[in-house]
Amino acid sequence: MTRTKRLLVIGLVAFGAALGGTYLGRELLASTGEDETELHALLHSELDLDAQQAAKIELIERRFSTRRKALELEMRAANAHLAEAMEAEHGYGPEVSAAVDHTHQVMGELQKETLEHLFAMRAVLTPDQAARFDRTVTKALTPEVQ
């Protein structure tokens, strides 16, 4: 295989990996509207939160919303940098590798902060409420295969 063909194949594989990583990150890490709606419905209408619980959860949600938006912007920037690196190197070179690592770092940070957010809300709940909350979160994280 010639050097040009090999570089083209490497570039296509890197591009496919980047697209796959972005897709998986969006599907697995980003909350979907349905899951978010189900969790919010549970929190705000089915768990019978008292006023103090509702206020604490509202504050937790506002703080996380701001942080999530910042991380989503950082993810878009990381993806743009990855695209630029791929365009410049046309292969899996040091810039592409660094851009992939940065994308993974941002995805990991979003996942960690999402979990911290969930546990912060859970800490506000009574044991019975927490058990229902846990079931809803587990269901959101383990969707049925269709």
From TrEMBL:
Pfam families recorded for this chain? Answer: Metal_resist (PF13801)
What's the protein name? Answer: Heavy-metal resistance protein
Taxonomic source organism:
Blastomonas natatoria
Q: What is the lineage of its organism?
A: Bacteria, Pseudomonadati, Pseudomonadota, Alphaproteobacteria, Sphingomonadales
